[in-house]
Amino acid sequence: MLDILNLESLEPLARERLDPMLFDYIAGGAADEWTLAENRTAWSRFQILPRMLRGVASRTLETTILGTPVSFPVVVPPMAFHGLCHLEAEAATARATTAEGTIFCASTVSNCSLEAIAEASGVGPRWFQLYVYRDRGITRGLVERAAAAGYTALCLTVDTPLAGHRERDKRNTLRMPSHLELGNFPTSHADQNRVGSGHGSALAQYIAAEWDPALSWRDVEWLQSISPMPVVVKGVLSPDDAVLAIEHGAAGVIVSNHGGRQLDGVPAGATMLGPVVDAVSGRGEVLVDGGIRRGTDVFKALALGARGVLVGRPVLWGLTLDGAEGVRAVLAHLRAELDLAMALAGCAGVGDITRELILQSASSC
Is residue 63 part of a domain? Predict the structure, then answer.
């Protein structure tokens, strides 16, 4: 298994393995990449206030997310094009996630089909992430296929009416490798990402042509009406939007700025998590992503009220370096760091991680 000192150490190793254009696509953010950096920095503004003599010889990290039992509160988020990192693509990631006892969320724009991902997941829990297409027949078909394939939640991404200003991708004239397909679509969709028109990112052109920028809160209700699965809204930063999501039928929200890849200059998920949790006030579950690289970051998120977290790029670096075993190593490392943080902070279970164990730096207010 991949030997990991810390998750930050994986990125430079993966960079050595990947084509520079593809590395930049995964690692990069929007515009000046201020938000990309802020996602990591924001967690350092919270400090853990440990409690002593609480009997932590036996600990459990098990919990539930949307009622699904998981071995620890870390979900593998929807990320496009795992085939950039490994030949087995999402099948390897899904297989590893199942082995580690948590949820894999498959992207609409995966290289493997959602059915192939379901097969690789086996008995493991899985969610399907949805981009809403201008052609609502395509959207409805994806929802029906996900339900038939045993996915247990629909993760609606709402922060991508258009692609963010990703300068690395424009500079590199991003194109997908010729051997990769979009597993959920006809070959013509993959061809759009391979060819594009003129300069700039072919992916950005595909998003502008295919995804529906007219998406509104009414569409959350529409999706809930056609889906037997609960809907989770991903890409919320405003507490007011979190409340609207719940009022329009969502079972939960994911506080996220899309890994710093959409609108630069927005706050980190860590910054907005507490206010969103307070606004939702127990009416739905709240998860968070963005810059989580340590078990202590997971601990802080849980203390602020998150039900769980999503960890993205390190999973792709692990996949790049050692396939499914690399993904397992990343998840196992994060689990071990969270377990140690809980022991040292006086928490025998994740339910013991409460907001009283967190201090926020005055400079972050």
Answer: yes
